[in-house]
Amino acid sequence: MALLGPSGSGKTTLLRLVAGLEEPTQGRILFGTEDATRMAVRERRVGFVFQHYALFRHLSVAENIAYGLRVRPRRDRPSDAEINRRVSELLELVRLSGLGQRRPSQLSGGQRQRVALARALAVDPRVLLLDEPFGALDAQVRRDLRRWLREVHDRTGHTTLFVTHDQQEALELADRVAVLHRGRLEQVGTPDEILDRPASAFVAGFIGEAVRLPATVVGRTLELGRLRLPLAEPVPPGPAALFVRPYDLVPADGPENDSFPVEVAAVRRSGSARRVEVTLGADDLPMIEMEVPHTIALRKGDVLRVRFTTLRVFTVG
Predict the structure, then answer these.
(1) Domain-wise residue ranges, the chain
(2) pTM exceeds 0.90 for this model
(3) Measured between alpha carbons, how far is 41 from 27 in angstroms, rounded to an integer?
(4) Closest CA to 275 of 196, 211, 202, 197
């Protein structure tokens, strides 16, 4: 599960509550059916991976991974042979076989983060907590580690809570996403549910590069500046907000009833498509970004006929 939300929404606080580093003022923390609310940190068996690795610089990679096992009370501590076997397994799992005797300073950022994950997995955690684990890495390394982390999760099956500011990361990695705002859960669902069926205006505006446009609902019509758009589903009448993502607006094949003209304000190439900023012809409405095929030649000032594929409307006030 990915925890997604703006800074200050409570993502890291929630991780610290699960880990036992903070105490809740109310409510309970359950591991399955077991109440862990007052359980000591050591008893929870939680693996925690931080953004900046938090590795011991004076220890080798293998010693870092083994640390959580070696500091256990004697009665719970595995034998040296068992610890060495576990470390070897984890080095292979995180693709660092042969690097066990190196120091963290001799590794790349991506390798260090894999060591941090192996150390968290060494204690066989009931819950794995990842707090912005790729935040300090460059874009290409982040993409590679995302794919690798998903593979590791599928192989180990550990319940994982993953904090990130990166929406693409959350939607690509997670089976479920929890969107937080000001300490509250706005919505919990699959990536498809979060993207396609936002439960609140906040989720609709926060996810997917959405632009918020002021509108008014009159009967089964959405009034957007001078535009009048038919609503497929009933919405309570009155002031409303329309949330538009780049793929919600597409070129129209012709002068359909639901199409309308827009003026091109800026054009730039984005992979196999063009990103185009358009104005709706009303001074009080912000520009909207949309994607068009690169085969459509457009310049600033051109008029393009478009239509909405989806209308995400929420009443306000």
Answers:
(1) 2-196, 213-315
(2) no
(3) 18
(4) 211
Place of tokens 């008029």: 303
**DSSP three-state, residue 198:** coil
One-letter identity of residue 148:
W
Q: Which of 134, 132, 96 is nearest to 115 (CA)?
A: 96
Match domain 2-196 to its CATH number in 3.30.1360.120, 3.40.50.300, 3.40.50.720, 3.40.50.2000. 3.40.50.300
Separation in Å, CA 64 to CA 7, 84, 163, 215: 30, 12, 23, 57
Give the pLDDT confidence score for residue 34 in this predicted structure. 93
Its sign, for the CA torsion 57, 60, 63, 64, is positive
Question: Which pLDDT value is given to residue 9?
Answer: 93
Q: Residue 211: left if φ>0, alpha if ψ -120 to 50, beta else—which one?
A: beta
Compute the C-alpha angle 42/112/108, nearest 5°: 170
Report which of 8, 24, 16 is spatially closest to residue 161, judged by C-alpha positions: 16
- Return the percent helix, strand and coil in the chain, to nearest 5: 30, 30, 40
Confidence band for 282, pLDDT divided at 50, 70 and 90: low
Maximum C-alpha span of the chain? 78
CATH number assigned to the domain with residue range 213-315, chosen from the 4 options 2.60.40.1080, 1.10.287.1260, 3.40.50.720, 2.40.50.140: 2.40.50.140
